[in-house]
Design a protein that fits this description.
This protein is α/β, with parallel strands linked by helices and 188 residues long. It has helices at 37-64, 75-100, 136-148, 157-166, 170-180, 183-187, and strands spanning 7-12, 18-21, 27-32, 107-110, 117-119, 125-128. It has a three-stranded mixed beta sheet. Strand 2 (18-21) and strand 3 form a beta hairpin. Helix 2 (75-100) packs across helix 3, helix 3 (136-148) crosses helix 4 (157-166) and helix 3 (136-148) crosses helix 5 (170-180). The longest helix is centred in the first third of the chain and has 28 residues, at 37-64. It starts with 6 loop residues before the first strand and ends with a helix.
Length: 188
Amino acid sequence: MKYSFDYQIIYSSRKTLALQITPEGRVIVRAPGCCSRSYIDSFVREKEHWIEKHLAKLQEQAESRPAPARPPLTEKDRSRYIAIARDTFTRKTEYYAHIMGISYGRIAIREQKTRWGSCSGKGNLNFNWRLILAPEEVLDYVVVHELAHRREMNHSKAFYAVVESVLPDYRRARKWLRENGHTLWEMI
């Protein structure tokens, strides 16, 4: 079936389907790896009206503001993004910690200009909320990266062996973050 929009499918270890519309108007369907294309198509068909409504709203907002100016992020919006990030990183950390057999302390959501995540000696984890604007595999990589510090508090070969044992293709996500991480500051 033809839609008035294109959409990208990102498969991951998630258990449910989810829709994301990026600030630039890209439609992304996040799907479990075992999900068939026909099932995803029917999911998109069900949500078509909702998607078109949100794309039209984005278009309207883009047309109503001057080309170079981006309105500053309101505290209300920042709080909303932080809440989404807290939920996302809590779920992902629980999931990967279970797989890796690793414990951790508290999870904090921050907005650091120079770091995407960190792990303290006590096992407390910090994540940058802007990562929720990145592809799902990048979020997974950052979570696994920080949890791997619970085994190796360095960036040695042994550390990356822990990361690779969970995410064999982690280099692709790391490369994306190095090459495109700066764009997460430009999106909102």
